[in-house]
Each structure stands twice: as structure tokens, then as C-alpha cells.
Amino acid sequence: MYYQVMIVEDDPMVAAINKKYTETVPGFRVAGIFRNGAEGLEYLRENHVDLVILDYYMPEMNGDVFMDRIREEGIQVSVIMVTSANSADTVRSLLLKGVRDYLIKPFELERFQAALERFRSNKELLTGAGSGMDQSELDRLFAGNAGSSVERNKSLELPKGLNEKTLQMVRSRMKENTGKKMTSEEIALMVGLSRITVRRYLGYLQDSGELTSEIDYRTGGRPGILYRYI
Description:
- The chain is of the alpha/beta class.
- It has 2 domains: about 5-145, Response regulator (Rossmann fold, 3-Layer(aba) Sandwich); about 165-230, Arc Repressor Mutant, subunit A, CATH 1.10.10.
- Helix content is about 45%, strand content about 15%.
- The strands form 2 sheets. Strands 2-1-3-4-5 form a 5-stranded parallel beta sheet. A two-stranded antiparallel sheet has the order 6-7.
- Helix 4 (about 90-95) links the parallel strand 4 (about 80-85) and strand 5.
- The longest helix has 19 residues, at about 110-125.
- The radius of gyration is 18 Å and the shape is globular.
């Protein structure tokens, strides 16, 4: 069984990344890629989709209007935002309209995968619940909802492969440079670890709300990512 995923994104490069990342998670298949909400809505009216990966800033119909329209038309589909729109009012509005998870560009593969796995877990929990759900099942369901990632990461054990001592070392170095924008390469040199290893810890700290990140277009080649402890 595959979960059918629809990507609504006007940037071809981001859409390609979303598709590639989606297909790294077993059990998920991309049914189509659409450049704006109007095209996506037209497809949804005639085709079954389990999950929409949705951008906010798009021509013709943006993500906010798209959410309004699927609610008005009674289309039952889960939505994960993958966008640069990060104002508190925008996030609050979209969560109230039913967005299941929210990823800010640029995002890490691990965070994207976690969003899909959380969707799968909740979907399977609801499918297997039968006529009623007990409190433990409801707690599992609502613990995975968007908007509570900071508290959830504080209470859960570290993901597999992450070490508490190493996490504290990376966190400590970042705190010493609070407010300063740094690349993963610079941070790796500071802590004496590989860039790949450091990026996993940076991804965790970002998901926990301790770091922010932004795309650095000044590299002259492929854009990099700058991290900042807040």
C-alpha cells in the first residue's frame, strides 16, 4: 500500500527536492506536482490523494486560499506546509485551518522524513482504532500534531544515532556564539566533528526551536545554509 502525495510548489527546484525526499520514505508515492493551488485543487476534485505538500507563496492561488477552498468543498486530505512563510500570524492561521505539520525552508531531510512518518503513524492509529479510542491512543495522536514540536522534543528521548554528550557540546558552542550566523562547516571545525554529523545535531536543535536557519546565496555556487542560535 502506498500513500499518494501531491506536491504544490511553484519553484521547480524545491518541488524536485520535495519529490526526492518523499520517495526516500517507504510507502509514499508522488502522484503529481502542481505549480499553484488552483492546479492542485483541480486535481484533487477528480483524484484521491492522502497528503499534500504545500507551499504558501504561489501565483494564482496561494497556500492560505488553497486551505480555505479544500475546506469549503469538503475535500478530506492531510496537508504539510513546506514554505518560507514563518510569521506568527501566518502559522497560526494555517494551523487553525488544519495543517498537520509545518516545515520552514531550508529544511533538513531528517525533518521532512519525520513529518511523513508522523503522518503515517497518525493515519494508521486512526485506521486501526475501530469504534473508539482510549486515552493512550489519543495522547499518541495529539502528541504528533503540528505546533507542539518544541515541547515534544524536550520530553522525548534523542533520535537514534544522536548522543546527549555530543548534543550538549554542539549546543554549548552555539550558545557561545548566540546571534552569529554560521555554516555547518564552521560549526564542525569548532566542535571537532564531521560536517555531516554536525548537521544532524543542528537539525535536531532547529526542530527543537533553539536554532534558526536561512539560505546563503553569497557563496557564488550552490546556496549554503547559515545557522543562528536564538
